[in-house]
Amino acid sequence: MMLEHILQSDTALTLIGGVLGVAWTAFRSSDLIRNARNQRFDKALHALEAGVDLTYRTYVQALKTAKEDGKLTPEEAREARQRARDAALEFGRTKGIDVLDEIGTAYIDLWIAKLVKRLKTS
To answer: In terms of C-beta density within 10 A (0-12 exposed, 13-18 middle, 19 or more buried), how is residue 53 classed?
Structure first.
């Protein structure tokens, strides 16, 4: 009987409504935070793609056309990756995105390799 009395009181209903409102707000804000994080990651990935593309058009193609076999040496490939990374960081800075922070320092070279492979197949 006491529980029924408490649940029927205005104070208890207000308190329950408030708790449910806080829980719903926390749930929705977690979705918004996740969406914002995904958008920042997508922008960082676009900056990385732009850096790889710019490096390919300005550095790699010039080296390939200057050589008979059209292949880069390991040192030239390493320099191309570094240039792509630097260009991506600069593109990201212009968009207000920290590419290394969003993609991850440990994964940046992996993403560059993936993008180069995709660029080679297209």
So the answer is: middle
